[in-house]
Design a protein that fits this description.
The chain is built from nine helices and ten strands. A hairpin with a 2-residue loop joins β9 and β10. It starts with 6 loop residues before the first strand and ends with a helix. It is globular and about 45 Å long. With about 240 residues, the chain is an alpha/beta fold. Helices cover about 35% and strands about 30% of the residues. The chain has a six-stranded mixed beta sheet, with helices on both faces. A four-stranded antiparallel beta sheet has the order 2-1-4-5.
Length: about 240
C-alpha cells in the first residue's frame, strides 16, 4: 500500500474580498508535499485573489490557512516566503530596468546561506535561453523570456510551494509547452506547485489534481484527468 503524501498546504473555510465586496466563499483546498495542483476557472472566478491570500497580499476575512501544520492565516508576505511559499504573479512584474541576473537574485533576498549561486546555476540549467542574457535589462526580453525570469526568481527562494499565476498569458503555444516542461521538471525534483491558469487544458494536462473555481467557490475538485473528463468542464472550458 502506497503511503499518502504528506500535507503541505491546507485551506479551510476561507472567505476573502475587498472593499467592493466578498470574492472568495468557503474555499477548501489542499496541496500535498511534491504535488502539482491546477487551479482553473474563468476570468474573475477568484483565482488570483486566492493566490493573494496564500502569499499574504490579501487578507482573509475568515477561515484558516495552514502550512506544514502551522497556522499562517494572514501572515505577512516575507514570513510566508521564509516558511517556503513563493508567488510568481500574473504579468511577471519584473524590474524592467534591472538586469536579468539581479531580478533572479531578488528571489533569494531573504536567504543567508552560501548556496544562492549554486541555485542560480540550477535555474539557468532549466532556462538555458537566459544564460547569455544575464546582463540585459529584463524589460528588453521577449514575453516568454520574461516569464522564465519570473519563474526563476520564484525558484531562487528555494520554496516548498511555488505558486504560478497565469503561466500562459500572452505567450505562444510553443513557449507555453517549454515552460510547462520546466514546471514538470522542478515538480519532479520535489517542489510542490500550484498552477493557476485560464487555459484549462494546459493546466489539467500538467497537473496531478485540480480545483475548478467558479464565482469564488470551489465547484469541482479531483484527479486532473477526472476533472478534464467532467461533462460540465468540457462544455464550459474546453468547448466540447
Amino acid at each position: 500500500m502506497i503511503a499518502p503524501l504528506e500535507s503541505l498546504l491546507k485551506v479551510r473555510g476561507l472567505n476573502a474580498g475587498f472593499d467592493a465586496g466578498p470574492v472568495l466563499f468557503g474555499i477548501e483546498l489542499e496541496v500535498a508535499a511534491g504535488e502539482l495542483i491546477a487551479l482553473v476557472g474563468a476570468n474573475g472566478a477568484g483565482k488570483s485573489t486566492l493566490l493573494g491570500v496564500l502569499s499574504g497580499l490579501v487578507r482573509a476575512t475568515s477561515g484558516a490557512v495552514t502550512l506544514g501544520g502551522e497556522d499562517v492565516t494572514n501572515a505577512r508576505p516575507e514570513v510566508l516566503v521564509r516558511k517556503g511559499v513563493a508567488h510568481v504573479p500574473q504579468g511577471r512584474r519584473l524590474f524592467g530596468t534591472m538586469s536579468v541576473e539581479k531580478n533572479l537574485l531578488l528571489g533569494a533576498y531573504l536567504r543567508r546561506d552560501k548556496e544562492v549561486r549554486d541555485d542560480l546555476g540550477r535555474v539557468l540549467d532549466h532556462f538555458p535561453a537566459l544564460k547569455d542574457k544575464l546582463t540585459r535589462e529584463a524589460g528588453t526580453l521577449s514575453g516568454g523570456e520574461q516569464q522564465m525570469v519570473a519563474i526563476g526568481r520564484g525558484m531562487m527562494a528555494r520554496p516548498k510551494l511555488l505558486m504560478v499565476d497565469e503561466l500562459s498569458l500572452g505567450l505562444a503555444p510553443k513557449v507555453v509547452d517549454r515552460l510547462i516542461d520546466v514546471i514538470r521538471d522542478i515538480n519532479r525534483e520535489g517542489m510542490a506547485l500550484l498552477l493557476v491558469e485560464q487555459d484549462v487544458l494546459v493546466a489539467l494536462d500538467a497537473a496531478d489534481r485540480a480545483y475548478v473555481l467558479e464565482n469564488g467557490r470551489v465547484a469541482l475538485s479531483g484527479a486532473a484527468a477526472e476533472v478534464k473528463d467532467d461533462p460540465g468542464v468540457r462544455r464550459a472550458y474546453l468547448g466540447l
